Amino acid sequence: MTESETGVGGRPTLESVAERAGVSRATASRVVNGGAGVRAALREKVERAVAELGYVPNLAARTLVTRRNRAIGVVIAEPEARFFSDPFFAQHLRGISRELAAADNQMVLLLAEDERDHERIGRYLAGGHVDGVLLFSLHRSDPTPETVHRLGLPFVIGGRPGWPGAESDRDLVYVDNDNRGGARLAVQHLRSLGRRRIATITGPLDQTSSVDRLDGYRDLLPDGDADLIAVGDFTADGGIRAMTELLARRPDLDAVFAASDVMASGAIRVLRAAGRRVPEDVAVVGFDDVESIAAWTEPPLTTVRQEIEEMGRLMTRLLLRRLNDPGASAPSSVIIPTGLVVRESA
Amino acid sequence: MTESETGVGGRPTLESVAERAGVSRATASRVVNGGAGVRAALREKVERAVAELGYVPNLAARTLVTRRNRAIGVVIAEPEARFFSDPFFAQHLRGISRELAAADNQMVLLLAEDERDHERIGRYLAGGHVDGVLLFSLHRSDPTPETVHRLGLPFVIGGRPGWPGAESDRDLVYVDNDNRGGARLAVQHLRSLGRRRIATITGPLDQTSSVDRLDGYRDLLPDGDADLIAVGDFTADGGIRAMTELLARRPDLDAVFAASDVMASGAIRVLRAAGRRVPEDVAVVGFDDVESIAAWTEPPLTTVRQEIEEMGRLMTRLLLRRLNDPGASAPSSVIIPTGLVVRESA
Questions:
Q1: Which residues on chain B are in Cβ contact (under 8 Å) with A56?
Q2: pLDDT digits (tens, 9 = 90+) for A234-256
Q3: What is the least distance, in Å, from the CA of B256 to any CA of chain A?
Q4: What is the DSSP letter of A73?
Q5: Chain A residues with CB inside 8 Å of B84's CB?
Q6: Domain B179-305 in the same topology as domain B8-65
Q7: Cβ contacts (< 8 Å) between A110 and chain B: which residues?
Q8: Better-predicted residue by pLDDT, A331 or B238
Q9: Topology given in CATH for the domain delimited by A8-66
Q10: Fewer Cβ close by (within 10 Å): the C or N end of chain A?
Q11: Beta-strand pair A302-305/A339-341
């Protein structure tokens, strides 16, 4: 680690600190940079010299020299409430943070809820504090992908980007699960059980994961009744509201495919409160297979498994590869297959 | 916003970009910095010039000039598993992020689970990417407070620091809830209900919040039986394990004070599975009053309320005050009073 200093405006330099402390420049640098391996006695001398001279470490200079912070920004476009209540994010971040830790890169978590947050994040990213960016849970109007693109920061997106032209943009690298195929598996399973009035609870339709799951449902039910489709928002409350709506509109429904486990757990609560047995009267299939929910609902949830942690790991590996070898051709996007996990709810 | 450039090593400068694009230096700077307010046609010209010249923005230079990133690091010394499963953190962060957003400062979230994470965070903080640091959920051996101190970064701690000498260090500013007083309220309440064999489930004893709550319990039960004390870890599983232990050791216990709501919910599950009625056979009091747990256990939880979001807000305000007026005398630490919320479990 080197510490460059310019002495701009007569400011004390690292050399003057080293000289005053009677240590080598390397030792002074190590102390100033918070590094380990310096004996307490020497450290104290350096610290005293820093204090006496009023030395301010020229920290940003390091970035100018190495152009590498060994830090990756992770931008999550969700309010804290959802970020914390949906275990999807914990699993996703675990994949990212483990992969970053293995490569000794710092994970810098940035949450964006509204437009001002996105602006502020854009400013922070423009400040050169991270080497690359992982973006996920994007909504259609989120401005951050464009900002990152303009700044020339390498980035990888979690989930298929949905804005116009995204599909043909070779610079956009994303990792996604096969949402559409997974939804088809869910509906296929419900049909194989003899269910004929299969409802669905979608996620917010400004996210491609929601749209793709709805498309998969429609692939198998092209002449489906619009009354059997209710829009949710990936929260338990949203699942409760949507299920209540569906029961009011179509009391004869015999199955529900919810586009997330969290919403499915809300739906099951409504069904039980309405006296419907799950799965005898209404079969329920979720999506995600998040550890802490799917196996613990009553009855345990049949669901579409997506490899959430693996998705985080893959995104990270693609980004690091891009950073370590900027000359290489852009990696392609990756779609991870989904599978059905059959438990008791369907 | 200024963009300094040096042309080190013959690299293209912002001036050369502006010249090639046929725009002013200010416009080129705005485009390069991701700022808004530049017409699409001009932006394209600048972007083309950037691409053609291979210009790399001298981003870190800005920090050298302003020495202010308008960004605050929030270091949380917990594994993701706990960070996401205990709603305490969501509420705490909500307070911090709202206060930071109001002051237009970016929240930069850094999670530390093991020693290598702390080292990496130390390096990132030394890189000058944030103006100050909020630290919370510290364990006794966490090295980050010392690192931050050595780097000269202003910081505020959430929770009383527990290392030797911390109490007398005037530079250490912290915000805490009255953990000891709150624990006393809980035990007092249980005694007023006529309970005589009051057990407690503690948090991990390398955290002062756990130690202080245990001290409050002991204040009222100075001759208490050690068999009535079980060490937990602030997780539901920890609460389950500790309650199982307590029941095995003292099947005659008639009350439990759990040092967190999450652990109390685990304890209630064990008690019900063992055929004990709550509160008739065993009264249970928790600690925290987190929104999504205390009111939803069966029966609803009597608990010690701490102002979690307010704690986050206060920490942030103290830090921002320190940043905005470095000459002012260090603010004092703040202890927020706790109160008892009586519901049905005791």
A1: 67, 152
A2: 988 999 999 999 999 999 999 99
A3: 26
A4: E
A5: 84, 87, 89-90
A6: no
A7: 106-109
A8: B238
A9: 434 Repressor (Amino-terminal Domain) (1.10.260)
A10: N
A11: antiparallel
